[in-house]
Amino acid sequence: MKVYPFTIPKQPNDNIVVQVDKGQRFYNRLHQHNEIQLSYILSGSGRLILGNHVSTYSPNDLIGIGAGLPHIFQSEASEEKSEMISIFFLKDCFGPGFFSLKEMAVLQSCFEELTQGIKLTSDPHTRQLFQSISSLSKFDTFLSLLEILRRFTSRERIVFNKRGVIPKLSPNQGERLQEVMDFTLTNFDQPITLQQAAEKVHMGRNSFCRFFKQRTNKTYFQFLSEVRIQHASRLLVEEHDMSISEIALQAGYQSISNFNRQFREIHKLSPKAYRIATLTKF
Asked: I want to staple 117 with a disulfide (CB 3.0 to 4.6 A). Which of 50, 85, 110, 172 is the partner?
């Protein structure tokens, strides 16, 4: 399977595909597909990249990914097994006007948000819908999909990619962006220069800057900062014995003042305040 745009395998006349991914880690290459994807995380955690947004996923998360939106599920190194149930479908698979019917008006906001990527926490009923859908008849699978979409619409959720529409990637663009993201996700805890990133895709610095900005709607260093701050955020919550300066170093920051400034830019809180607020919440 290519790491670039690919088609979800399905049988003739199948409008809805249900896929269960189970193993040590999920498929963690940058990819995109024409189908809308609705996923429920049963187990496993890690870093989630949807379009230009860096986030995380964990058990009981629901993830919605619009058609053509590049994404990566990068599993954390762990002995814990990862398991995810996903539903794939084309928006026009039931006819070009089906989801434009007045009866479907309640779902329109969901389809608009799916183009940007959404995440929400599941509830018991939605979990049951996902866990039973693979054993249903085609008609009941169709009804379950509509109910899942309704629940995606009605529950509180996070919408990503507020910087604008993420362009669909050609195979060559996907290959280049994958190389850069692989390099970044592997080496973010070390000093990284723009020249190093550009050399990974055999481009000059100026050409690379234009390439990355045009395809993610953000600069390379904005992306790198979000990867580092996401990693630091997890350590602040999970590693109570680590000091903030130790966490900054593990996230790739040589300067604690630079770390504090970039952390505040993303979370609107200092690292100390974020740790206290998160611990208080849980």
From this structure: 50
Q: Give the largest CA-CA distance in the chain.
A: 58
- Domain at 171-281, CATH from 1.10.10.60, 1.10.3720.10, 1.10.10.10, 3.40.50.1980: 1.10.10.60
Choose the CATH number for 16-159 among 2.40.40.10, 3.40.50.2300, 3.30.450.40, 2.60.120.810.
2.60.120.810
Answer whether 0.85 is exceeded by the pTM: no
> pLDDT for 188-247, tens place per residue?
999 999 999 999 999 999 999 999 988 888 899 999 999 999 999 989 988 989 999 999
Structure token pair of residue 247: 């966490």
